[in-house]
Amino acid sequence: MTDDKDVLRDVWFGRIPTCFTLYQDEVTEREAEPYYLLLPRISYLTLVTDKVKKHFQKVMRQEEVSEIWFEYEGTPLKWHYPIGLLFDLHASNTALPWSITVHFKNFPEKDLLHCHSKDVIEAHFMACIKEADALKHKSQVINEMQKKDHKQLWMGLQNDKFEQFWAINRKLMEYPPEDSGFRYIPFRIYQATTERPFIQKLFRPIASGGELHTLGDLLKDVCPSAITPEASGARLQTTEPQHICAAEVSVKATRSTNFLSDAGSL
Amino acid sequence: MQGKRQARDMAMPSSLLWAVDIFGRVYTLSTVGQYWELCKDTQLEFKRVSAVKQCCWGIACDHQVYTYVFSGDVPIRYQEETYENQRWNPVGGFCEKLLPSDRWQWSDVSGLKHQQLDSFTLPSPHWEWESDWYVDENIGGEPTEKGGWTYAIDFPSTYTKDKKWNSCVRRRRWIRYRRYKSRDIWAKIVSRDDPDQLPDPFNDISVGGWEITDEPLGRLSVWAVSLQGRVWYRENVCHHNPEGSMWSLITTPGEVVQISCGPYDLLWATLWEGQAIVREGIDRNNPQGISWSTVESPSSENGIMHVSVGVDVVWCVTKDRKVWFRRGVNSHNPCGTSWIEMVGEMMMVTVGLNNQVWGISCDDRAIYFRQGVTPSELSGKTWKAIVSGRESDRSQTGSSTSLLSAGCFFTDDIQNQTNAIIQGDADTSSDTELPSVPVNLANTPPLGAAASSGGNSTGHQAAEVCTNLTVDPLDCHQGEATVASTSNEKADLEMQKSRNPNPSAELQWTNIDLKEAQKQPVLSISTFAETSSLSSLGMFSVGAEEQYGADEHPLWAWVSGGGCLVDLHSPLKWFTVPSGLSSSVQSLSLSITPAQTAAWRKQIFQQLSERTKRELENFRHYEQAIEQSVWVKTGTLQWWRNWKPHKWMDVRVTLEQFTGSDGMRDSILFIYYMYHEEKKYIHVFLNEVTIIVEVLNEAKHSFALYTPEKTKQRWPIRLAAATEQEMHDWLSLLNMSCCESRRIQGPPSHHAIWSVTCKGDIFVSEPSPELEAGPLLMPCDQMFWRQVGGHLRLIECNNRGIVWGIGYDHTAWVYTGGYGGGFIQGLASSADNIYMQSDVKCIYIYENQRWNPVTGYSSRGLPTDRYMWSDASGLQECTKINTKPPSPQWSWVSDWYIDFNTSGGTDREGWQYAADFPASYHGHKTMKDFVRRRRWARKCKIVTNGPWLEVPPVTLWDISIIPSSDADDEEAVALWAISDKGDVLCRLGVTQQNPAGTSWLHVGTDQPFISISIGAFYQVWAIARDGSAFYRGSVSPKKPAGDCWYHIPSPQKQKLKQVSVGRTSVFVLDKNGNLWYRQGITPSYPQGSTWDHVSNNIRKMSVGPLDQVWVIADKVQGSHSLSCGTVCHRTDVQPMEPKGLSWDYGIGGGWEHITVRGNTTEASRVAMHDTSEESLAVSKDLEDEESKGKTEHSKTPLMVSDSQELDRNTVNC
Fold first, then answer.
1. Nearest to residue B1031, comparing CAs of B1072, B965, B991, B1088?
2. Out of the domains of life, which is the source (chain A) (predicted)?
3. What digits encode the pLDDT tens for the residues B831-878?
4. Please, which residues bridge with residue B636 across strands?
């Protein structure tokens, strides 16, 4: 039998092969070689691109370097979206490796948030966790955790430590046996075609009639266009029909799939 | 999630709360249930019941006493015996003619009582004979000659099985079993007493006292009060005599109205005048007690009306319905000190197990449970109403279609049917129609919800309607008043339709229930009327004026919690009204089967794998974005230093983990210490660690870490943490690291070897093919053991993955297929299949005394003596106060009590006598005895979790599961067991899908058994309590219980204690630790011929399906120290050499049990290539056994040299 853990592991160890190239207009002292990396789907761009930054800075003059930002086919990439989400949203039809252009100048203030240090990413990450737990447990679980537990969650993500992360995250994904599920399912649906950044609604795991909701129900409810075959705009990986029936929302494994990677609900 | 919850319910042992409603119907409510269930036997109405775990006593409305003994797979049977005596004379040889001074020709064992075969009659109509009389051919574990005669010189003498020249008399024992048949029904207690002495009709009854002594088995104190106010005690009530023998009158200082008997020595009764009387002097030797003392009512105006007692609590209700709690009650002061008034007004209260309390409220006659009763707060916190409906009510929440078949029993009276239905509907919807009684049940579901989908229980519901109708005769005319209400019109319509019985609906209805429904009309109102007039206190007087019409919420008259175990860990579902909504949720979620869950989970996993493949396959050479650095955990622990003097010293500990590119990790543990001001360290590669085992120690939270080297030395690395939590963090992490470095994850395989330490910890090891055969045998000190949660005394498995265990409290557990549990949390533990598990064991201390001429025995010993309170060895001081439970995981669940079951026997006060201290003790004082001791016991309980589910209700002593061949999965697996009472049992319905099986089949024996084993070809061997061995004939899949026992003589008058049967080998273990092999077993002669000695110093053994022999041995010498309880493996066991040659030593000491019966992993043929002769022999099958038998016979002359090597082969001391 397939264990939840196998699913969690595969979600965690999801990687996107990426090729970073320096933007042509950047001034360099010598030619910048492209840089190849396997990016973890569940992490954030600015968290995992220290190597990229170092690589390109070597060929640039110090005074030419300001804050790094990334762009794919003209779209600036929001660092506060998980990498997997960015890829699925903008580049899922592209040939691999994913080709990302690296900029050091002309920071697009309109499109991107600044990310001066990892603390900013941590703050953003924790805010997402807290928001999700507010929906799931009225924040009870996250509030009962100690500071070091929060730190462990973050360090787990930062250092790609699956066990370390899940030792804590497990608590966030549980609910008392007398409840039949979370209060609300934390999710966000991102679409590339619309102006709206994302769709987010309160959604209970159990219908008023008592039956368990599926991911299909959720989509029907909040984003009906995503499940009609014509609608290609929604970049939800889980919209493949067979996947919907598989995704009984009440099950932890599936939820964590949504939670962490695909829909980018963080 | 729902499925999991269901399973958890199953796992939780349930017990019953008994109650009687105002109509005299008896209901039970399970601690895991949600509904009151009508007692199976509904022939009678009752006014009082008093329940304990195994039975319930009651007084029916005919004023007769009845007992209701639960049915079980194990019969209640009693062995009658008598002796046939004969004397030799020169003329006729042995004959019936005896000397005038001799005993009778038929007598009891002492010869003093004349008892012929036909003088034995069944004690009551509730018994039946199991078979005819037969001769017992067993004397003290030795089989006798055919005919069963035993010989002696003269009558009061010792008998032997051999006839000698001077054997002048002989006797033989005849036995016959009778069986109690009236189980699961109310069995009337037939009085055979002298009519003059017969008690007048009974008015109250109370059962308890089972904690006073466990001898004889299942002993109970049954107390009753007659209408005239006299108190009676039922003599000799015990397991094999559930009815008791006679009533004895107990004189009282006044007329008694009510009585209550606690589980232990507390007995209170109330007098007409309003005082309570308390029985004093109840103890093991005198369960009836000696005298009464009086306790005044808490208020002078209002006397005590009702009293109920527990282990050390007393609750009472005074005539003004006020509830009182008695302070300061205990064994030494059964009267207590003072009354405290409690909130609430009750008709009665009952104290159950764990001192939990229930009461029936005056207001609404609902049963309330006292919440928050704990050992530290015996009076509890609040009353909480039990709102569970009756099963009959539940049916009413179904759809109206469910009423379709209601007419099938009552086609003659449509009006009545209508009423019944209306009541049924109304009952779930509202209680407010009870005018005289304020109702405080709040959350009843709206009618709409009640009438929601009911689905498939149509027939069931319909019949319940009938039950309602017939048992509530008074409701019928009341119902007319409510007919008009609008909501009922629909029902009315439905009823019209329902006149045609619906056959399909009926089909779903079980037989028993049908019978019940039909039985009801026979008991008419007349019996009921009698009931109500009789009861002065317990029954609700149902006056004609009193209207409670459509109210169907049960009105209770009596409740008994004496068999109901509620503890902190059992969540009750009694307090929420099961609404239509929730039931539909339940049914829906149940419809998602685990198989479906597994299917789509697999699908998700496959899609993820595909994605990974798609995105990663060609790019694996890319650099990882996040470097997998060395990860380090550091901490401060204590280390048992390895130079003398050994002691704990503070050390810094670092665990460094290196992650390979494949995501797998290796780890090194560093221990930094100071040695003569010099910094030093030792390090351990975790991939070399073979086991990490927690060492329960009240002083330290410590654990031991073994490598093969450390195992050889018998000197592990011992580390201790400051707190239990810290230790468990380390244990969990180290365990996970070890498993990771060995690439072991998930549940153990079917071939796994399981073992249990003397602390009850469970370990499992994956056998490598080289463990049993091959050119390079793997030494067993290299086996890697990982822990599995739970607490067990023994564990048995087979090669189909069926694993059973037995706890210290004899509870049977079945393995769920999970892993982890206990301290192994998080990812190293499976999310499913982990359940709560508890176990209870006794801690013993000894009270030692020395005799001196002045004061006799006293606690003043000689200066050289042991402590006056000590452990068994006398070396450790153990007082009642300083003795703690084995670890913080354990908590006390009883007080200290004297243990009378010490080997050697005790006197009436539990003392054992001896000449001096380190000596053998006996149970009576002689002239030569100068010291005495007695054992005190105290029960403690552990609550943990693990992949185990309880298999109630029979408690077990031993188990054996057949190592099956390549049978298909559906085939039943033979599983034999010995109950803790010594009954031999055979489990039916055990399959790989349902490893717990379905029921027990009892296999009759003439005496209690202690050990059982079933070999690969259905050879069943067993050991009786007297140390003799038995072979069970003709066991086969078609005949799972076989046909009869063959007595096998024991080796050299040794008392045997364990047997294990492998593929063809049979080994037994005697009580002196000798291991014996059964020689000469062939398929045509499976009993074999002789016993061959193999080794001594063996504690436990397990023979596997490859005929491999593993044992737990004592006194194993390591290079640093000696160990007891060590896993050892017999090497060079081969078809030609089934006894093997020598021992290989594995993990230990402190091991208690091992089972290798799952391991059929043979070395691969390739590995055995060069030893072709052996591989040929191994691959031979059953048909070759015949020849094998021959070769063994032909080898017999070699025995001499074998026995010469005996010493070399034994486990060294």
1. B1088
2. Eukaryota
3. 678 888 999 999 999 998 888 888 888 877 777 777 889 888 888 888
4. B652
User: Per the CB < 8 Å rule, is B746 touching A3?
Assistant: yes
Residue B1052 CA to residue B1049 CA, distance in Å, equals: 9
Q: What is the reported pLDDT for B59?
A: 94
B456: Cβ contacts below 8 Å, ≥ 6 apart: B508
Long-range contacts of A118-127 (CB under 8 A, 24+ apart): A118/A46, A118/A47, A118/A158, A121/A44, A121/A46, A121/A47, A121/A79, A121/A80, A122/A154, A122/A158, A124/A44, A124/A80, A125/A44, A125/A154, A125/A157, A125/A266, A126/A150, A126/A153, A126/A154
Burial of B1207 (C-beta count, 10 Å sphere; 0-12/13-18/19+): exposed
- Give the span between the Cα atoms of B549 and B546, in whole angstroms: 9
Distance CA B1040, CA B987 (A): 9
Among the partner-chain residues B604, B608, B827, the one whose CB lies closest to the CB of A163 is B827
Q: Does B165 touch chain A (CB under 8 A)?
A: no
Q: How many CB pairs under 8 A join A and B?
A: 136
Lowest-confidence pick of B250-259, B347-356, B495-504: B495-504
Q: Name the residue among B404, B429, B574, B556 with its Cα closest to residue B493.
A: B404
Q: For residue B63, is pLDDT > 60?
A: yes
In whole angstroms, give the CA distance from residue B457 to residue B1067: 54
Residues of A in contact with B624 (CB under 8 A): 15, 37-38, 160
Helix axis angle, B414-429 to B458-471, nearest 10°: 100
Helix B525-534 vs helix B473-482: angle between axes, to the nearest 10 degrees?
100
What is the end-to-end Cα distance of chain B in Å, rounded?
A: 53
Determine, for residues A252 and B831 on separate chains, whether the beta-carbon distance falls below 8 Å: yes
**B595-644 tens-digit pLDDT:** 566 677 788 888 888 888 888 888 888 888 777 666 778 889 999 988 88
Residues in contact with B1200: Cβ distance below 8 Å, sequence separation at least 6, in sequence order: none
B865 touches B856 (CB < 8 A): no
Could you tell me the maximum CA-CA distance found in chain A, to the nearest angstrom? 68
Torsion region of B714: left, alpha or beta (phi above 0 gives left; psi -120 to 50 gives alpha): left
Q: Please state the pTM of the whole predicted model.
A: 0.71
ipTM above 0.85, yes or no: no
Rg of chain B on CA atoms, in Å: 34
Residue with tokens 């010995």: B978
B127-129 vs B169-180, strand pairing mode: antiparallel
Closest of B493, B473, B474 to residue B483, by C-alpha? B493
Q: What is the pLDDT of residues B931-990, one digit of tens each?
A: 888 999 999 999 998 999 999 889 999 999 999 766 566 788 999 999 998 999 999 999
Q: Which SS3 state, helix, strand or coil, does residue A218 take? A: helix
Closest chain B C-alpha to A153 CA, distance in angstroms: 14
Q: Give B586 to chain A, closest Cα distance, Å.
A: 8
More confident residue, B1146 or B1169: B1146
State pLDDT tens for residues B315-325: 999 999 999 99
Which residues, 6 or more positions from B206, have their beta carbon under 8 angstroms from its beta carbon?
Answer: B50, B222, B223, B224, B259, B260, B261
pLDDT tens digits along B171-211? 999 999 999 999 999 999 987 655 666 778 899 999 999 98
> Coil, helix or strand for B1133?
coil
Return the DSSP state at B801: S
Rounded CA separation B259/B560 (Å): 13
Phi and psi at residue B246, in whole multiples of 5°?
-155, 165
Phi, psi for B585 (deg, rounded to 5): -60, -45
Residues of chain A positioned with their CB less than 8 A from the CB of B732: none
Report residue B634 as tokens.
Answer: 């550091």
Q: From the centroid of its chain, how far is CA B464?
A: 34
The residue with greater pLDDT, B810 or A54, is B810
